[in-house]
Amino acid sequence: MSTEDKKFTRRQILRWVGGGLLFNATGTVLYDPIGRLIRPVNDRLGEAMLSQRLIPEIELGDHVDLGKLIVNSFDGTPKIDLANFRLQVTGQVNKPLRLSMDDIRRLPYESQITQHVCVEGWAAIVQWGGVKLSDILQIAGVKPTARYVYFTSADGYYESWDLASAQHPQTLLAYQKNDAPLPPENGAPLRLASPIKLGYKLSKWVTAVTVTDQLMTKRGYWEDQGYDWFASI
Ligand SMILES: Nc1nc2c(c(=O)[nH]1)N[C@H]1C(S)=C(S)[C@@H](COP(=O)(O)O)O[C@H]1N2
Ligand SMILES: [Mo]
What we know:
Layout: H1 3-18, E1 22-23, E2 29-31, H2 39-50, E3 87-91, E4 97-99, H3 101-105, E5 110-118, E6 122-132, H4 133-140, E7 148-153, E8 158-162, H5 163-166, E9 172-177, E10 180-181, E11 191-193, E12 206-212
Parallel strand pairs: 3-12
Antiparallel strand pairs: 1-2, 3-4, 5-6, 6-9, 7-8, 7-12, 9-10, 9-11
The structure holds the ligand Nc1nc2c(c(=O)[nH]1)N[C@H]1C(S)=C(S)[C@@H](COP(=O)(O)O)O[C@H]1N2 and molybdenum atom.
Molybdenum atom binds next to loops.
């Protein structure tokens, strides 16, 4: 038997054992064609364990400074007509919303200094200012059946989050960065900022927030190319 054959056979056995899932030696799922089978269990565990934990705020000091975000956009900075911009909040909510930036600026302001972590191997300490996503969700009134929140962006980027992470008190829709208005390349007028999720979960140029009771096949721009969906830090 050649090495190739052996590998193939081992893989097949792993597949048979896993019932369609491919595990490595530590039991981590490497290949999961059905997803639904194991995901709900992991999600709920993750939601319970990680989503409500508060991340300590970073204190700036002698050796801790605000950092510089490396602009990371899959398709450049989209043009957004700010005068006519409205954030749409729809789906499983009692009261769908269309909010202008003036509406959003009138909501309670929240500021936090947290670390942005990109899977590509860089991180930056950032001061974010904006509104808690949970405040907006509360105004819209999330229905009891709701479990996920989808984010649509002006550049075609899309993301989905579990509801608990979206409602985390440190998950913001930010319009300000490092004590200045949020620059266009970093997601103006509105982007997600949260210390509980990796950079790719933090959608820039958010135009719509859609509350759902299930996860769709398209779960996120990078997730659909193999990156982890929960993406907790
Ligand atoms: N709409 C949109 N949001 C996005 C991205 C993108 O390409 N488009 N890239 C993500 C990635 S991978 C990272 S690390 C951060 C980078 O944010 P920054 O460009 O403000 O540093 O934005 C995230 N949000
Ligand atoms: Mo990233």
